[in-house]
Amino acid sequence: MEMTGGTITGNTAEYGGILVGTYSTNYTMQNNFSNPAHYYSKGILNLKGGTISNNTAAVLGGGIAVNGTGILTMDGGTISGNKAPFGGGIGVVDYLTSADGKRFGEARWRGFFPAAATINGGLITGNEATMTAVTSQITDPNAENGVGGGLYVASKEVYVNGGEFTNNTAGKQGGGIYVASVPYVLHMGKTLVTGNTATKLGGGMWLCPTGSATTAVTNGASFFDNVAGTGADNNDTSAAGDDVASINKQDPATQTLILSNNGLDNWLVHWYEDGKIDEAYLGNSDGSPRYPSTVSPVVDRGTLDGITEKIALKAIVSDEGKAAARNAAEVIVTGNSAPRGGGIGSNGSVAFGTDPVNYDKVELTVSKKWEATNTNHVTSVTVGLFRITKANFDAVALTNADGSALDTTSMSESEIFQAKVDKLMTSGANTYAQIDQVALSNANDWKFKFVDLLKYDMVNDAQDTTNPNIYFTREMDTDGNWVANEATATFGTQKIRVNYTATINASGAYDQKISNEEVQYRDIEVTKKWVGGIASQVEVQLYKDGVAEGAPVILNAANNWTTTYTNLVVRDAGKTIDNAYEVREVGESGNVITIDGAKYQVTYGLIDANGKMEITNKKEPTPSTPSVETGDSSNLPLNVSILVMSLLVAAFVAKKRR
Question: Contact 289/237 with Cβ under 8 angstroms?
Answer without folding.
Answer: yes
